[in-house]
Amino acid sequence: MRALVYKSTGSWYQVKDLDGITHNARIVGKLKIEGITSTNPIAVGDWVEIENQTEEESTIITRVHERRNYINRVSPHNKNQHHIVAANLDQSLLFATLKDPKTSFGFIDRFLVISEAYRVPAIIVFNKADVYKQKELDKFELAKSIYEPIGYTVKLISIEKNMGVADVKDLLKDKTTLLSGHSGVGKSTFINYIFPELKLRTKEVSGWSGKGMHTTTFAEMFDLSFGGKVIDTPGIREMGLVDISKNELAHYFPEMKAVMNNCQFNDCIHMEEPGCAVKAAVNEGIIHEERYISYLNIRDTIDNKTY
How many other C-beta atoms lie within 10 A of the C-beta of residue 86? Predict the structure, then answer.
């Protein structure tokens, strides 16, 4: 039987078959997925084959179908391994805040690089507009001026004041959407807005650190009543890149990719080389300086590995 994975707790999986029946399933033995080594062989959003074992009254997963795409990150438990966050996505939605807690543009750029690398269209939603003063509103306008011209949808909302939330809800219709972001940015509050019957736990931002407290422990998928699905994920403190080399990083900045063929050298890394079209575009204001600085910062954190 074919089924879709809705929740993963590490050892058990909640799956729903094509008749809409939910099963608690487990893996028997080692499931290997060709070409992928991760801390979790099965992710939320995976299509799997299941078998019911009547003798033991249990359901087992026997196979994982090929993924259309997936998003992964460095494992929070082991920086040498990676963890698949979710699979088979139509889009990703990054919740960000400019206050309580503050989401840096660097964190946003890392998320966008990962989305680009796995060909998942990304949306950026800035929440908590009700607590923003002029400084934060100016920062939001800066974010719009950086991200909208290069193809990203940018929204400003306040779940608390029910401002702009319906527009974001409309973006979810008939799509499978990954919700991500730091803890405390309002992901669970947003889920509660869409699914009031779930009453998910939400916590205030930790006062001493300014960082949100974790509320979601495992990724979980929910069916939208108006069509589509959302995948809620645990709050992410850092967005570690996996399987992206220094030399290919610029390909995941759309505005750099658009001009890099005009560089004088094929192997240009857009730093010190003469005739670099990317640096020329930065100087001319075609590529935003903030994004170029992000590129350099991210590049510095990538190990010199060959992939």
Answer: 29
Side-chain half-sphere exposure of 270, counting CA atoms within 13 A: 30
Please give the structure tokens belonging to residue 199.
Answer: 């009453």
| Cα–Cα distance for residue pair 155/292, rounded to 1 Å | 23
Three-class DSSP category at 105: helix
Separation of alpha carbons 101 and 95, rounded Å? 11
Helix orientation angle between 134-147 and 289-301, rounded to the nearest 10 degrees: 80
In this structure, are residues 215 and 179 in contact, taking their beta carbons and an 8 Å threshold? Answer: no
Determine the Cα–Cα distance for residues 30 and 26; give it in Å rounded to an integer. 11
| 78 vs 74: CA distance, rounded Å | 7
Compute the distance between CA of residue 249 and CA of residue 253 in angstroms, rounded to an integer. 7
Distance CA 61, CA 52 (A): 9
φ, ψ of residue 165 in degrees (nearest 5): -70, -35
Interatomic CA distance for residues 210 and 182, integer angstroms? 11
The DSSP symbol for 183 reads: T
Contact present, 105 and 236 (Cβ < 8 Å): no
* Cα separation, 78 vs 91, whole angstroms: 27
CA distance 34 to 43: 15
- Residue 143, token pair as written in the block: 């974010």
Could you give the domains of the chain? 2-64 (2.40.50.140), 70-232 (3.40.50.300), 249-301 (1.10.40.50)
Question: pLDDT per residue over 40-83, tens digit each?
Answer: 788 999 999 999 876 666 899 999 999 999 988 777 666 667 78
- This prediction has a pTM of 0.87
Distance CA 255, CA 269 (A): 15
| Contact criterion met (CB below 8 Å) for 156 and 164 | yes
